[in-house]
Every structure is written in C-alpha cells, then in structure tokens.
Amino acid sequence: MTAHGTRAGEDAEDLDVEEVLALVNDHGNHRPAPAPRAETDGGRTPDRPDTSPRSDRHRATPWPDARAVAERAGRNAARTARRAPVSVPLEAALGLTLATPLDALTDLPSFDTSAMDGWAVAGPAPWDVRDEGILAGHAAPTPLTDGEAVRIATGARIPPDTTAVLRSEHGRTDDKGRLYATGAVAPGQDIRPRGQECRTGDQLLPVGTLVTPAVLGLAAAAGYDSVDAVPRPRAEVLVLGDELLTEGLPHDGLIRDALGPMLEPWLRALGAEVVAVRRVRDDAGALHRAITTSDADVLVTTGGTAAGPVDHVHPTLRRIGAELLVDGVKVRPGHPMLLARTTETQHLVGLPGNPLAAVSGLLTLAEPLLRTLAARTAPEPYTLPLRDTAQGHPYDTRLVPVVLRGDQAVPLHYNGPAMLRGIAAADALAVVPPGGSRAGQEAELLDLPWASGGIGVCFT
C-alpha cells in the first residue's frame, strides 16, 4: 500500500492475481464453484464441446454448469495472465479488490480526543473555566490543573491531566462563571483514547476485501492515499447488426439499439473496465478484424450466435481456432449464448441479440467470468418464496424478473426474450427450474447489481 511515502506495499510487486485468488479462497472469502458434471456424450464435458461428426447433436450446457465453467475460465485466465496489482488512488478504487492487506499506518485515533462537545475538566467540581476553548485541528493544548475546565469541541485534542469530558447538556455555570455537573462524572468519560480503534501495524482488512465506500473511509483514516488492488478486467463490447439505430424512432425495418447503452454500465457494475463499445456491421470480415485486433481481456458480442444467414460469430470463432467452452445453455431466455477462449488470456462472451436474452447471458456467463478475473467474492446464494406461480420451460431453467416485497418475490410481466420492461422494474431474477414454480415455493434469486445495495450501485 502506498500512503504519504510510508510503507509502500513492499511485497506488492511480487504478488500476482493468482496468489490473490488463492489467498481469497484460503481465507474462506470465496467458495469455488463445483466442477461441471461430465456428460456421457462421447466423453464430452460442458467446457469442451464435442468436435466429432456428431457435434450437430450438441446438447446445451445445463445452467448451473455454464456458470461454473465461466468462473473456472476466469480463474484460469487470471493465473495465466499473472497480472500484477496496481496502485490506485482512493478516489478511483471503489469496487476493486485489495491485493495486499490494509494495515494501519497510524494509531486511531492518533491522540486522545473528545467524543462530545462540552468541557474538559480536571479534578472534582466546581471548575473554573478558561477563557479560550479548544477546537478540532488545533495544536496540543496546555495541561489542566485540578479545579480547572476548558470548553472543547468534538474531535479536539484532550489537554494533558484531563479527568473527563463533561457534555454540554450535563453542565451548568453559576453567576460567578464556575462550572458544575448535573450528574456523576466518571474518569475517562467521553474521551476517545489514542489507539482505541487500532494501533500502528494492526491489520484492518485482509487481501481479497472489496473496496466499498466504508473501506475508502477507513483507508483514508488509517493514512492511505492509495491502495494496491487487483486491476479491473478490460472488456470491449461489439454491437452486431445492420438493423440497429443509435437515435430516433424505429423506421423502415430498423430498430433502436437497446444493448449498446445498457451493456457498458452493466459491465462496469460487474467490475470491468469497458475500453470500447464498437458497432460492427453484418459482415464476417468486419467481425474477424474486430475480434482479432482487440486486446481486451473479455470481448462481449451482441447477436449473431445462432445459425442465420448473417450470424457470423460461430464461423469466425472456428476461423480463428477459438475453443468453445459453452455453446448454448439450457436456460430461457438466452439459450444460444456462448463462451469461447480466443487466446490463453482472452475470452469472448456471445450474447443473444434479444435484450432480455442478453441480460440472461450477462448473469450466466459474463458475471462469473468477470467476477473471478477481478478477484471478487461470489455473492451468497439466497432464496425467497414466490408470491405467484412462475411458468417454467419443460426442460430448461428459466430466469424471471421479480420485485422483492417483504419476504416474497413477485414475478413481473413483460418477461419475453425481446422485452426490457420487466427487467427495468426488477430487483432480481428468479431462477425457475424446468416445469415451473408454484406460488409459495422457494426460488433462488440473482440480485441485479444496482438493486442489491452493494458496490454495483456505483457505475464509475
């Protein structure tokens, strides 16, 4: 850690993301996802699709397994890339993960301070009150003698030989200006002694801690100007499609692009640094150039993952020799999503073109991938009973937008693959198993980053 030129994180240069991830796991702050279950289809597993002639019968990956594959892909890429921690000013560190412990650089408080507005008093009452008081930020005051008091503000330094602080509402003065207490005065009352919160060198927070607003405040109080953190994974968005408008009303078969404005802030909420949002026409050569010239850690494409006449994602991935880790997921909406390893340290998340289907892909594949690259801990799973019946798919998991009302989750309407009206009002997505869930049945919930009260509420 770097602060005021002192204790500048001497070991940070030797610590890489792999070690951070290992330390996070060792401290119990992160639960690795279970390894995907092998499928009995010619020895194929979910992260290594069948490349035999029978691959046209490729079965999509079960939804929980797809998330596990994406998490493992992020962990493997982090180990391979061995990205060194970065020193980040406090004002830019929100949402990052600590790569070195936060150790106190000073005692907190660094001197005895008053916990209240009132008087610093010495000895028993009554007390003669000094003419000049003591304010926070002033130099060390002169000692008090028995029978003496001085006005003091919250946070001001306590004069030597002070017995206690008498709160303003607990004191009265007589016509001669002498101070009396209206109740008992205990030694040390309303004094914060030096080092009450911590001593220099105490570990305040371990490696793997997410930098929240409170962490920023603690770091500043402890003397830091910057922290050593795991760098954000760099993401680039490729918006595919000739039919998309960037402004105005739909016309002549053209429609507004809903994903371009949505994906950049959403990916930032998931911990990524979005380096570019590029629009790519429906042309195989243009997509090939966009993918092969990107140096982002994660590429996110929109649309083009099916097998239509202008769906160029699969052919382009085959052309560049990418490894398909997930090729279709047993989830609705979003079935044709995919995850590919384009290089040893770069992955591509292919989102379906329909807006809610793309959201499903974000939370299924992009979230666990980016989370592990950023060394963030996995959110604790939780469930709530559904207030109403949620219709399911016969064979696949279904993700349904819900609002949280008390101790229940209420499924929302307008939850078709092309609709955003439901998710725009939602607090979370309910994970509905094949066949559906009845009213009152517990459902696993995936919080939306801005609705959970967590760090994702900050998009900068």
From TrEMBL:
MoaB/Mog domain residues: 236-372
Taxonomy, superkingdom: Bacteria
Biased composition (Basic and acidic residues): 38-59
Cofactors: Mg(2+)
Keywords, in A-Z order: Magnesium, Metal-binding, Molybdenum, Molybdenum cofactor biosynthesis, Transferase
Enzyme Commission (EC) number: 2.10.1.1
InterPro entries according to UniProt: MoaB/Mog-like_dom_sf, MoaB/Mog_dom, MoeA-like, MoeA_C_domain_IV, MoeA_C_domain_IV_sf, MoeA_linker/N, MoeA_linker/N_sf
Record region (Disordered): 1-70
Catalytic activity: adenylyl-molybdopterin + molybdate = Mo-molybdopterin + AMP + H(+)
Pathway: Cofactor biosynthesis; molybdopterin biosynthesis
Enzyme class name: transferase
Assigned protein family: Belongs to the MoeA family.
Record-linked PANTHER family: GEPHYRIN, MOLYBDOPTERIN BIOSYNTHESIS PROTEIN
Function statement: Catalyzes the insertion of molybdate into adenylated molybdopterin with the concomitant release of AMP.
Listed name of the protein: Molybdopterin molybdenumtransferase
Organism: Streptomyces venetus
